[in-house]
Amino acid sequence: MLTREHRCGRSEEQELEPWPSPKKARSGRCLRNGFKWKMEEPEEPADSGQSLIPVYIYSPEYVSMCDSLAKIPKRASMVHSLIEAYALHKQMRIVKPKVASMEEMATFHTDAYLQHLQKVSQEGDDDHPDSIEYGLGYDCPATEGIFDYAAAVGGATITAAQCLIDGMCKVAINWSGGWHHAKKDEASGFCYLNDAVLGILRLRRKFERILYVDLDLHHGDGVEDAFSFTSKVMTVSLHKFSPGFFPGTGDVSDVGLGKGRYYSVNVPIQDGIQDEKYYQIFESVLKEVYQAFNPKAVVLQLGADTIAGDPMCSFNMTPVGIGKCLKYILQWQLATLILGGGGYNLANTARCWTYLTGVILGKTLSSEIPDHEFFTAYGPDYVLEITPSCRPDRNEPHRIQQILNYIKAQQLQLAASLPANLSNFCQGSEMPTTSRPALDVKGGTSPAKEVIFAILQIRQGKTNFPGSWARPS
């Protein structure tokens, strides 16, 4: 397990001066190069508009069940223990999750898949001849008890959604949920059950339009696929998109199908992105989406594998950057279901979700990690902050702007707010309908022209976003 991010191929010990002992760190005298660590950004209360305190889905049995997943052993305990160490649990309403019934899981997953998963789970049979058909194998081994784990996670997210439906809270949290890759008849990417889809389906009992926002490193393909034909659920995913990177979907031109056309929004991002640029992209996209879709409830997946130091070695984010995105969603004052997701540096994942819990509560957390069961896992610094590495940012500003222009055109089309005369909208300029706008003298095109070009492409059904725009050369 990584304890801190790699820096330019050198180990952390080669760059930093010796760290104090855990005893000194506990006393609050933990210094780095002579200066006490401080939060990168002072916390301000998140305006979630909640007159009711948030619901926190938790029980010892649920945490123990989630700890059993081999890919993230003890992660659930680490997350809860750090939240508890900061006494954040005392400021939330703790709700014990129910276990999902077969009928509840079958609102999305097929009976055949669920029955097979239950069978191999009881037998601990990872070599069943039919398992490959159901995606059980390399990244989703059919281990003993895996069905019970899936039912527990699915039930926890359904419980959180029901709390929102019942008006018990405005924000409900299930940090052990967010498994967004599972399909209706197939496990995928460490995901055996798509609890995010189950939560959305439960919310649809009350809320007419649900917005799903996925900030995991990986494309939320399972959720997008589940709702690709409907206009009642809009999915937005910001993720790494690169040849050979799992799951290989989520290009900007993937916009949904049938009645769900334009209700899928994908933002492909390259390695090395940091907080400021990520938030600029997020805010630009979500502003357009909110105006076009007018959601009545939100499901927010906050996978922590985007954080610097994650073994995925891709994005270069910190919890502060993700926290700004979370605040942006909360200021809408809608019923909001918060889920976890990826995150394979276990200590950093606990840091991230604890910090985000503080954001939800509007609390500033101490820099020093409080003494608790997993305290030694946070060495050698024993602080809450995560520092970005010097990983280069592969996201070129012009390429990002082209992607954002395309998404803006998509949302304008969705909102049916296009001007009747596109040439007038472009201030009299002649716009070609079959080729990309010509470069200006500075080697670029105006954002307005790029938007109009994208609109015309969408209207003509030419939604294959040019590869040179979305992918590195």
CATH topology of the largest domain: Arginase, Chain A
Strand order of the largest sheet: 4-3-5-10-9-6-7-8
**Class derived from helix and strand content:** alpha/beta
Order of helices and strands: HEEEHHEHHHEHEHEEHEHEHHHHH
Low-confidence stretches: 1-45, 417-445, 465-473
Count every helix, treating DSSP H or I runs of 4 or more residues as helices.
Answer: 15
Q: Name the CATH superfamily classification of the largest domain.
A: Histone deacetylase domain
Largest sheet properties: 8 strands, parallel
Describe the protein:
The chain has 473 residues and is an alpha/beta fold. The protein is 34% helix and 9% strand. It has two domains: 335 residues, Arginase, Chain A (3-Layer(aba) Sandwich), CATH 3.40.800.20; 74 residues, no CATH class. Helix 6 runs parallel beside helix 7. The chain is globular.
List keywords for this structure.
15 helices, two-stranded antiparallel sheet, alpha/beta, 9% strand, 10 strands
Write a compact overview of the structure shown.
Residues 1-13 have a biased composition (Basic and acidic residues). The chain has 473 residues and is α/β, with parallel strands linked by helices.
